[in-house]
């Protein structure tokens, strides 16, 4: 982490400015600005390949953006995942990444490591400082298992949990680092409607406990029920951002998802043969 250079705007916890990510000739994310405020749940939606996960990876230090900056509480983040977690951003992954052969409790404890100060020697010698830290971590982990409804599973191996509970465990592990902002990448993928509703309630409870949430999801009902604001990415750029009502009513969003041309799209370009003419938002060549 570098020293703060800009005081945070009142209420703004995350501020991404002009984030661009290129992979060779492909621009996956183009100059995206996005803020998340304290106490907010913000949705990030867009068709497959729109750049949503790449944008998350830029926020969490997995990728170093080609251009742009990411600030958290006014501090520019170092693009290193462990420093981003330490700063207060935690995430889950589109493809579940648990330690399959560790128990539910052990997986949750792994998430605590950025919040414990005990070093390697203390852990090896199991001194009084280590034992106290271990007790505190275990108490906090148990609270999180209670919070996510996994208490009865504490000693089960992660790989033996049903899919929906594996997703919950990912959230419990992310919360163990005590984040100010939680990034969820498709938290309801593969869930049945009952599990999806439970996840919706869990995300609201996380927000109510003081952690802001930025969530990528393809389930529109989930997004529009839950989010204070929704941003739409199409072909790497932010098409629109607003309340659920504003976004749902926007013809360009409908076109981007359904591939239906809008009036603007049907107007012939000045130079139809010009390869630089951008394709319509719904075009996923
Ligand atoms: N590491 C990488 N190297 C090269 N191209 C990449 C890389 N990661 C992503 N891409 C490309 O960037 C574009 C955006 O991908 P990304 O996974 O961010 O989209 P997405 O909106 O999350 O899609 P989905 O909803 O399907 O998960 C895609 O064209 C993808 O193939």
Automatic annotation (TrEMBL):
InterPro entries: AAA+_ATPase (IPR003593), ABC_AA/LPS_Transport (IPR051120), ABC_transporter-like_ATP-bd (IPR003439), BCA_ABC_TP_C (IPR032823), P-loop_NTPase (IPR027417)
Highest taxon above the source species: Bacteria
Keywords: ATP-binding, Nucleotide-binding, Transport
SMART domains named among the record's database cross-references: AAA
Pfam families xref list: ABC_tran, BCA_ABC_TP_C
Gene Ontology MF annotations: ATP binding
Domain ABC transporter: from-to ranges: 14-260
Gene3D superfamilies the UniProt entry points to: P-loop containing nucleotide triphosphate hydrolases (3.40.50.300)
Biased segments, Pro residues type: 269-285
Record region (Disordered): 259-285
Protein name, entry field: ABC transporter ATP-binding protein
């Amino acid at each position: 982490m570098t020293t703060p250079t800009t005081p945070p705007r009142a209420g703004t916890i995350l501020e991404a400015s002009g984030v661009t990510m290129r992979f060779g000739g492909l621009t996956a994310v183009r100059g995206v600005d996005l803020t998340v405020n304290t106490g907010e749940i913000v949705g990030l939606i867009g068709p497959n390949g729109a750049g949503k996960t790449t944008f998350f990876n830029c926020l969490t230090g997995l990728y170093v953006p080609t251009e742009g900056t990411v600030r958290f509480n006014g501090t520019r983040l170092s693009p290193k995942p462990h420093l981003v977690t330490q700063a207060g951003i935690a995430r889950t992954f589109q493809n579940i990444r648990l330690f399959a052969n560790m128990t539910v409790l052990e997986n949750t404890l792994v998430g605590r490591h950025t919040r414990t100060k005990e070093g390697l020697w203390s852990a090896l010698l199991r001194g009084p400082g280590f034992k106290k830290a271990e007790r505190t971590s275990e108490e906090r982990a148990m609270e999180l298992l209670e919070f996510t409804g996994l208490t009865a599973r504490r000693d089960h191996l992660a790989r033996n949990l049903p899919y929906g509970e594996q997703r919950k465990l990912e959230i419990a592990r992310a919360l163990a680092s005590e984040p100010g902002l939680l990034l969820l990448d498709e938290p309801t993928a593969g869930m049945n409607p009952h599990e999806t509703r439970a996840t919706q309630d869990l995300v609201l409870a996380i927000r109510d406990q003081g952690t802001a949430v930025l969530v990528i999801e393809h389930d529109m009902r989930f997004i529009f029920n839950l989010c204070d604001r929704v941003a739409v990415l199409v072909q790497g750029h932010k098409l629109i951002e607003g309340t659920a009502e504003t976004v749902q009513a926007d013809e360009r969003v409908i076109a981007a998802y359904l591939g239906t041309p809008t009036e603007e799209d049907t107007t012939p370009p000045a130079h139809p043969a010009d390869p630089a003419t951008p394709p319509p938002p719904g075009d996923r060549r």
